[in-house]
Amino acid sequence: MNAKPPLQPFPTPSSSSSSSSNSFPLTQTLTLHWASLPLSSSTTTTTTTKSKRPFLVHTTTNHTTPTDLSLTSTEPHNSQDQKLLALLRQRKTEEAWIAYTQSNHLPGTTCLSRLVSQLSYQNTHVSLTRAQSIITRLRHERQLHRLDANSLGLLAVAASKAGHTLYATSIVKSMLRSGYLPHVKAWSAVVSRLAASGDDGPTEALKLFSSVTRRVRRFADPTIVADSRPDTAAYNAVLNACANLGDTKRFLQLFDEMSEFGAEPDVLTYNVMIKLCARADRKDLLVFVLERIIEKGIPLCMTTLISIIAAYVGFGDLETAEKMVQAMREGRRDLCRILRDSNSENLGQEDEGGDGDVFVKLLPNCIESGNHEPPLLPKAYAPNSRVYTTLMKGYMMAGRVTDTVRMLEAMRRQDDSASHPDHVTYTTVVSALVKAGLMDRARQVLAEMTRIGVPANRITYNILLKGYCQQLQIDEAKELLREMADDAEIEPDVVSYNILIDGCILVDDSAGALAFFNEMRARGIPPTKISYTTLMKAFALSGQPKLANKVFDEMLNDPRVKADLIAWNMLIDGYCRLGLIEEAKNIVQKMKENGFNPNVATYGSLANGIALARKPGEALLLWNEVKERCWVKREGEISNSSTSPPPLKPDEGLLDTLADICVRAAFFKKALEIVACMEEYGIPPNKTKFTRIYVEMHSRMFTSKHASKARQDRRTERKRAAEAFKFWLGLPNSYYGSEWRLEPDGDEYASDSV
């Protein structure tokens, strides 16, 4: 209940519910804003003074509309260009492409822009590849300026829809560097994709949004850049990025900025706010988001109610989710009252994270909620299959397989066809059965889907593949992959192969993992970052770090993926598992040079490698680095270096391994530092283990009666540390004023081990 709930999906601006606002038809005219001198005396130049490198924008003399240069370039002067342009005007894109490839010269601006636009609009893998080849050629020949904003914008949208988010981002950034201001529907589509992607996608979405809006603000006359100004859909996309990051302060800042550009929050904006509340662990505020929508008169949609149910499911509060669904079944409009009563003990709770002021500004209606009655819904909303399936997912996550199956049966008996189970419902049941290890029953559900005409999709098969791999039934997984492609005619995707590669790791089959990786690429499926790191894991666990290094090098050379800290750590761990500390340290140094700071996993692998290599001196160096990053700044103190690595919170595995190494090597002073650090972070040291190590390895330390006076003087400090360590362990020591001896007391045990 106290854990942060998983983020629930919501309709982003690129989803079906907002397709109208983010659609990008070929007939949409995009205005080109670019930096150059006026074409003639009939045009005037408008500039800004806020920037050191101002944008110069062509406008007509009456300053009403910006000059549209997208398809009005100089007409072609040779017959090849005229033929190509005629084909493009007739929408004979395939013939136009052939004519372009057979031409011995580079076509003009109009032909190139139209060709890229039409190829992008086709939105197929082949057409997108062709459009990208034109871009590549123009970049190599330094002729990218031949393309207008319309064609580049369409290409960015097509690339983002095809999942090539990095490429789409590079197109928009290239436009900005060249002085173009892309149409809002072009750059916001890329922001939307970035916001919904993993890793640093949301952060990049914020950067891209700021980059565009910063340029838009440079123009004193907003009509000049009207087509590039952010609209509500663009703000929804960037607010989604903030919600995914849990950045409440930036969310509020952008939310307040909407009025500056005339963008009004809509129902999707508040759907994103529901996600933000879930990310910020503010279950008490969900009802106030719903009330705010009603109070502002924003048309409510079913997606909002589904998002609220999903949020309660994510919090593990299935009781409130059930009450909400039951009220919808009864046709009640007082959902706000029901939600308030269900969370009355949490309403108005203080936020420990310091985000209380943010939410008060976002939801001012939550301040004095007790002074007014909760509003009614404008109408009753009957639950549909998405509502039931969302609640069913809660049962699945809680391991309530019986309730999941019962809900499926209940949905089948509903009179309303909108409440009948669909492929998502059946896939949820399959997931629940797979999670419980009931693979036979899961396959029966798959067979039933085929029988009743509800086709399974790729996600359904991937869940089954994962179930077989988790149960180490790789042969069954291979057979299911064949059925998926041959019988169901569903081509496996990169997720399918990632699951199979990981399954091979579970059965120690690195050769099989490599075979699936190569098969995936032979099918034309580009590997993802997970594909590379999973294959690296296969080689690292099988004691083949050099092969893991080769996979890593290939990953670095793949422009479609970006190596992250997980990949670096996987490579380091591969060498540490064999005790190859020097190689691992070299990789750590390269990792730092590439802008990645070691984390707890990095240090943990190094500690394990040092223990395996039996190089306690390396442990002291590692502990010094860890200790520096574990230092907690005192109140009011500021770090003197902006480039210093971020603070580190060590875990039990790292500190216990370092302490173990130090105790075995008789570095008792360092061992005491480490156990003190463990206690500071609330990690209980294993005194039983350390006592056993001391008794077995150091019980006869400093007992030799024949050591020289000089040697005895040199070991005085170490002896004090040993006595202090025994004191911490609770063993007899000099602090108690008693002599500690281990029986039997024979001369063979009286030796100086130092």
Automatic annotation (TrEMBL):
Residues 77-197 form the At1g68980-like TPR repeats domain. Residues 1-12 have a biased composition (Pro residues). Residues 13-24, 58-67 have a biased composition (Low complexity). Residues 68-81 have a biased composition (Polar residues). InterPro entries: At1g68980-like_TPR (IPR057440), PPR_rpt (IPR002885), TPR-like_helical_dom_sf (IPR011990). Residues 1-24, 41-81 are annotated as: Disordered. It comes from the Eukaryota. Keywords: Repeat. PPR repeats lie at residues 231-265, 266-300, 384-418, 422-456, 457-487, 493-527, 528-558, 564-598. PANTHER family: BNAC05G43320D PROTEIN, PENTACOTRIPEPTIDE-REPEAT REGION OF PRORP DOMAIN-CONTAINING PROTEIN. Belongs to the PPR family. P subfamily. This is At1g68980-like TPR repeats domain-containing protein.
